[in-house]
User: Which sequence fits this backbone?
């Protein structure tokens, strides 16, 4: 009898190919210095490294930085699940749960549904551990491949 691990799908893009994709089609993604740690089939883990420029008054990581991190994490997970680099964000809602302390932030993205309209979520947690600082839900338009 097959084990659940036998049904695990490989991502439709490698980490290296995704980094090349960002460099060639989305060079703006380099602005935040986000590190791509892992891409799976419908999931991804990215990291916003510590940077004083990402902080707002009071020393917390600014909301726009968290939103950019979450959006890129979902893009990685979508491309990992569909292989389609032409996917675009249709909506993104962020729920700030607590202040994001200075330091690195990890984004754990999971795709919940794939299709022409895909949906996913991201939990943003401090690099040092602890409770999530934000939860993001998002839908994506995934055009048909030609």
Assistant:
């Amino acid at each position: 009898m097959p084990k659940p691990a036998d049904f695990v799908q490989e991502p439709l893009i490698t980490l290296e190919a995704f980094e090349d994709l960002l460099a060639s089609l989305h060079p703006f993604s380099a602005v935040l210095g986000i590190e791509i740690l892992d891409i799976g089939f419908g999931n991804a883990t990215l990291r916003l490294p510590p940077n004083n420029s990402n902080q707002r008054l009071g020393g917390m990581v600014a909301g726009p930085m968290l939103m950019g991190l979450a959006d890129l994490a979902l893009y990685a997970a979508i491309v990992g699940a569909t292989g389609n680099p032409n996917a675009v964000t249709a909506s993104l809602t962020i729920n700030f749960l607590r202040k994001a302390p200075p330091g690195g932030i990890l984004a754990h993205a999971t795709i919940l549904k794939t299709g022409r309209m895909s949906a996913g979520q991201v939990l943003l947690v401090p690099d040092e551990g602890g409770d999530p600082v934000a939860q993001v839900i998002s839908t994506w338009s995934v055009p048909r491949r030609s």
